[in-house]
Amino acid sequence: MADKPKFTGLGISLAAALGAIAGILIGHIAIWLAIGIAVGIAIGASFGHKQVQCPECSAIRRAHEMRR
Question: What gap in Å lies between CA 10 and CA 22, rounded to an integer?
Answer without folding.
Answer: 18
